[in-house]
Structures are given as structure tokens and as C-alpha cells.
Design a protein that fits this description.
Length: about 210
Amino acid sequence: MRKKKVRTNYEKLKFDELHTLAGKVAACMRESTVFIDLPVDLEEIENLAEDYQIKWEVAKDGGSKLEKTLRDEAKAELLEAFSRLATYVNHTARGKMSVLVSSGFELDSDHKPLLPTDAPVLVKLTDGPQKNQLLLRFQGVKKRSFYEYQYADSLDNDGEPIWGEMLQTRNSSANIIAPTRPGVIYYARVRTRNGAGASDWSDVASLMAR
């Protein structure tokens, strides 16, 4: 089982959330009998949060380039102090939940393994923008790296499409199949792929080219 920890990176927190966190951590640490050899002084945490607040207020309504730079530097210093202190908390707590929670920091979420995404749905073949073209479109799927699709213009003895080469796309609405031959029925299928592998194939769409 993965050892529980507190977060050490708070870069995505908003200004007010960072300021609130600083106050919460400082208050919890002052009452702690476990965290007694801190790598960052609690007053320093509070001063960094106050400095960030002042510079954020100055730069929030169209501040100058210098004012925004000073704001970003103040935030970076606060985040670095958070990271040092949170790392110390994890080392001291050694996975003990009660100790982690008592620090005031946020618990790190459990790692979730990457899974293949679902197969695309609403797969359709329509007339293309130009003669001798078909357009393949389908509903987009989140958390995919790209799509793979195949099309066919003939069936085998069992009535199954004889699929052509594997094609890749990142677009779910503008995939051209060409050149097509009038009167021939075309078939298409699509799937997603990400770091965990490929999804199942979609339902097969078909259309007679005109």
C-alpha cells in the first residue's frame, strides 16, 4: 500500500487559498508537539504570505511588468517554503495519518493508474466537402492522446469489412476519406489511444459514396 503523504507542490492553488493555507499551517505547527525541528521558521511562512498578498494586490488590476514580476517572485518564495516544510512533515510523519493531518497541509491524493479511455461514440460518415470525398466524424473523448481509425471499401466472405491501413488523427470532426468511388459503400471505425493503450473499436459507420 502506498504510504500516505501531504502535498509538497501547491503551485495550482489560487492566491486566497495559498494565504489561507499559510495561516492554517502556522497555527497547527505552533500547537504541535511532534513538529519541533522545523526547516522553515513559522514567522517566515507568515511573512512570505503577507508579502505575497501585498504584491498580489498591487499587480492584480493591470499592474506593470515589474509589479507582476515581483508578485511572481513572492509567490515562488512562498511555494518553496511550503515545499520544504511539507517535505519535513512527510519525513517526520512516516505515513502516520494523524500526524499528517495535524500539520495543516493538504493530503496528497492517492495515485490512480492510467486506464485506456472509452471508445468514441456517434461515429458517422457523411458527404465530404468536395467531390469523391467522405467525412468521418465522431464525438470527442477526453484524456486520449490521439485517435486511430480505419476504413474499408469491401467486405470479406463473412460480410466483415476488409480494413485498410491504420490512420491517426487528433481531430474528431474533420477527417477526410478520399478518393472515393460513386456507388461504393464505405465503412469506418475509430478508437482512442493514450499511455495505457487503445480503447475498443467504435461501432462501424457506413455510407454509399456519391
